Prior knowledge:
This protein is an all-alpha fold and 305 residues long. The protein is built from 12 helices and no strands. It has one domain (44-297).
Amino acid sequence: xxxxxxxxxxxxxxxLSTPPTRLRQRSTRRSAASxxxxxxxxxxxxxxxxxxxxxxxxAVTALSRHxxxxxxxxxxxxxxxxxxxxLPLLTASFEAAPEDRTVQLGxxxxxxxxxxxxxxxxxxxxxxxxxxxxxAHMAHSAAITYPAPLRAVAAAVHGSAALLCGAxxxxxxxxxxxxxxxxxxxxxxxxxxxxxxxxxxxxxxATLPTMLGRRLSRAFGAFSVLYAAAALSLATxxxxxxxxxxxxAAAAHWVAVGAKxxxxxxxxxxxxxxxxxxxxxxxxxLGTFAVALFVAAGRRENGVR
Length: 305
């Protein structure tokens, strides 16, 4: 009897002594995880703010004054407005990135694209006039070169963002998602197509899906990649932040286009000859943003928009 009581007490003491150790280990792991999460979030916030500032500075520098033509100040302001329309998508993507590998990959690719567009700006903006001999307006635009300080800072910002998101994509576990939205996948495919156009198509086709001309159209292709990544992510899971970013960016694009039509209605063909030279592609570009806006702002169906 005494032996049984002793064994019972010793077992009870061992049971009481073990859990605190395990609890301390779990507490340590949770503490480490909770410390890493805010650090990662802060890195994404910093990358988001820096990327917004870098793109805005490059847009203002490239579009404030034409290299060879004397254009109205209103035209320059509207062009800058058009260039800044994807900023809601950019900030939303950085906010959603910590939990989404697709967005991480999209941000890595878009940031690398923007970095290249800054470093190799003359190549991104140069026109081979011989490929479009029927378009006289293509011969008067000079290639863009950013000031050395802006080029260095912007390249560092976008390059760092690409490394941050690329490393996160490689280290994140691959999660399979079963649900798919055909509409969002179509939107992703359309924007991927516009990214391809910006990358390899000759001018004037490369000025689409925006009306930014040679000075920034190829660089804007990075945001077509980001639109495609966001749409692909939303095809598998509804994310309020990301969906709202797509809706706001697409709406801002339409506001900028509407402002151009109203303010420059008497000289649209003069200021946007490239767009008018490709009417079918121009309508398709506007339609892509319209569908993205409609789907992002539309009703939720079966958990996926």
